[in-house]
Write a structure and sequence with these properties.
12 strands; 314 residues; two-stranded antiparallel ribbon; disordered C terminus; alpha/beta; 3 domains; single chain; Arc Repressor Mutant, subunit A; eight-stranded mixed sheet; D-Maltodextrin-Binding Protein, domain 2; rod-shaped
Length: 314
C-alpha cells in the first residue's frame, strides 16, 4: 500500500511546528483535518508515529524513521514546483526543431536569433538539412519546417500543418547564358541545356518537376547536387541551369548567377509550412515559439520578391 505524500507532508509540518494547532494554521486546514491525516498515516504504517506529552510531540521510532524521508519529499516537491514555475515563466525549457536545408539556412535563422534574445534561458536544438522525413522520429522533436512539395502524410494526426512564409522559385542561369538574350523564356526552352537538380526529396525539385509535367515535358536528369549552395555553385560555374529561391539569390551576391521568373508574369510561388502539435500537446516553449513566429513574421518582414536578379540584386 503506497503512502499518500500529502499525509507525509502534514506529518512533517506537525513535527516542525510542534503541535497540531500550529500545523493547521500553517497548512490553512482545520485541526480535525490535520488529526485525520495523521491517523491515516499511522494506519498505513501500522504503528504510532508520535506521543503527546507535556513538552509537546515526541516521535516514536517509526516517526523518527519517516522524518528524514518526509524532508526529502518536501525538497523534491519544492524542486518540482520550482521547475514547473520556471518552465511556465519560460526561464528554462527546450525547443527542438527540424527543418529542410532551405528553411534552416535562409528563413529560420533570423527568427531563432530574435527568439533567443527574448528568451535567453530557452535551449534551442535545430536539425537542418533534412531530405528524407522518414528518417525523423517525430516524438523526439517539437516543430517541423517543411518545403512546399514535400509529402506530409508521415506526420501524426495531432499535428497541424499551416503555411508560414511564401517565396518564389527562380530559374538561375550562369552569367552570359544564351537564353538570357531572349525576352521571354519558357519551360521548353530549358530542355536544350543541362539542368542542375536538387536532391531527390527536395521540395523545390518536386515543385519544378510538377511544373514541367504540367507542360507535358520530361527534362533530362543532367546533374544532381545536395543543397541550395551546391546548386548556386554549380550554376555559377557554368555547369547548367538551376532552380533557386529568391531568398537564396538575394543573399548570395558572390554567385555569378542571373535569376529569371518562369513562367512570365506569375512565376512559381513556393510556400514554407510549419508543422506543430495541436495546442493541447504543446509544451510551454513550443507554444511561446509558435506565438512568437506569428508576431515576428510580420515584424521582421516577408521574403523579398524579385523578377530578374543577379546575385540577389535588382
Amino acid at each position: 500500500m503506497g503512502v499518500d505524500t500529502e499525509l507525509l507532508l502534514t506529518f512533517l509540518s506537525v513535527v516542525e511546528t510542534g503541535s497540531i494547532s500550529a500545523a493547521a494554521r500553517v497548512l490553512h486546514r482545520s485541526q480535525p483535518a490535520i488529526t485525520e491525516r495523521l491517523q491515516k498515516l499511522a494506519q498505513t504504517v501500522g504503528e504510532p508515529l508520535y506521543i503527546r506529552g507535556t513538552g509537546g510531540i515526541h516521535l516514536t521510532a517509526a516517526g523518527e524513521t519517516l522524518l528524514p524521508m518526509a524532508r526529502r519529499l518536501r525538497h523534491l516537491t519544492q524542486e518540482c514546483d520550482d521547475i514547473i514555475a520556471r518552465r511556465q515563466r519560460l526561464r528554462e525549457g527546450l525547443l527542438r526543431i527540424v527543418a529542410t536545408n532551405t528553411a534552416a539556412s535562409y528563413f529560420l535563422s533570423r527568427y531563432l536569433v530574435a527568439f533567443r534574445e527574448q528568451y535567453p534561458d530557452i535551449d534551442v536544438h535545430m536539425r537542418g538539412g533534412v531530405i528524407d522525413w522518414r528518417e525523423i522520429s517525430v516524438p523526439d522533436w517539437d516543430l517541423f519546417f517543411l518545403e512546399g512539395g514535400l509529402d506530409l502524410e508521415e506526420l501524426p494526426s495531432y499535428y497541424a500543418v499551416t503555411p508560414w512564409l511564401q517565396d518564389e522559385i527562380l530559374t538561375a542561369f550562369p552569367e552570359g547564358h544564351p537564353l538570357l538574350a531572349q525576352e521571354h523564356i519558357g519551360w521548353r526552352d530549358l530542355l536544350a541545356y543541362p539542368i542542375v537538380w536538387r536532391e531527390r526529396y527536395s521540395g523545390i525539385r518536386r515543385t519544378i518537376e510538377r511544373a514541367f509535367a504540367a507542360e507535358g515535358l520530361v527534362p533530362r536528369q543532367s546533374i544532381e547536387v545536395t543543397g541550395v549552395e551546391a546548386v548556386g555553385t554549380a550554376v555559377s560555374a557554368g555547369l547548367g541551369i538551376g532552380f533557386i529561391t529568391a531568398a537564396a539569390l538575394h543573399r548570395h551576391t558572390d554567385w555569378k548567377v542571373v535569376g529569371r521568373r518562369i513562367p512570365v508574369p506569375d512565376g512559381i510561388r513556393w510556400t514554407l509550412y510549419m508543422a506543430s502539435p495541436q495546442p493541447l500537446y504543446q509544451s510551454h516553449t513550443t507554444r511561446a515559439f509558435v506565438a512568437f513566429m506569428g508576431d515576428a513574421t510580420e515584424r521582421l518582414g516577408g521574403t523579398p520578391r524579385f523578377s530578374d536578379t543577379k546575385g540577389g540584386r535588382r
